[in-house]
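Sanity check. The docking grid for adenosine monophosphate depends on where the pocket ends up, so I'm generating a full predicted complex first rather than guessing from homology. Inputs follow.
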Amino acid sequence: MRVAVFLGSSVGSRPEYAAAAAGLGKCLAEAGTGLVYGGASVGLMGVLADAALAAGGEVIGVIPEHVFSAELAHQGLTRLEVVASMHERKARMAELADAFAALPGGLGTLDELFEILTWRQIGLHAKPIVLVDVNGFWDRLAELVDALADEGFVAESSRGCLLRARDPGELLSLLRVR
Ligand code: AMP
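Predicted complex below; grid placement will be based on this.
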C-alpha cells in the first residue's frame, strides 16, 4: 500500500505543521506503507520525506523538470522520478498511490487535492482521499465544501469522498477499513 501525500513546499507559520509532517512520515514508514510525494527537499515536503526515510520507509518522489531546482529535488529518496510537467506529476502520483492524504499547504496543495477529488467525482478512480488535520487547519475548507453542497453545486456523494482524520494514526485506520 502506498499513500500519496499533498502538502506545503513551505513550512507554514506554526511549528505544529512540521511536527505533523514528521509524525506522518514516521507513522507511514512504521506501518510499512510507502510514501509518494512531490519529490522536493524543501518545506513540509522535505520534512515528511526525511522522517519517512529515517524510519526506514519507501519514499518515491515525482518532480517536474522545471521545478527541479526551485524545490531542490530530494537526493536521498528510494526513487526520484523526473517528469515533464505538473500535469504528468499529478497523473504519475495518482497512478503510484492507493490512497491520497493532504496535510497543510498552499495553492499547490489545494490544486493537487481538488484535482484528485474531481477525478474521483467523475469516476476516474475510487481511491480514498483524506484531509489530515493539524489544529483544525482543514475546518474552513470543509465548511466551504459543505456550503457548495448546500447550494446545490456538489453532490452528497462527492462531499462524502472527502474524508477527515485527526492524526496519522486515524488516517491509517481509515485506510485499513477501505
Ligand atoms: P504549495 O502548497 O503551494 O506549497 O505547493 C505544494 C506542491 O504543489 C509543490 O510541490 C508545488 O510544486 C505543487 N504544485 C503547485 N502548483 C501545482 C499544479 N498546478 N499542479 C501540480 N502541482 C502543483
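Relevant for the grid: The chain has seven helices and seven strands.
Also worth noting: The chain has a mean pLDDT of 96.
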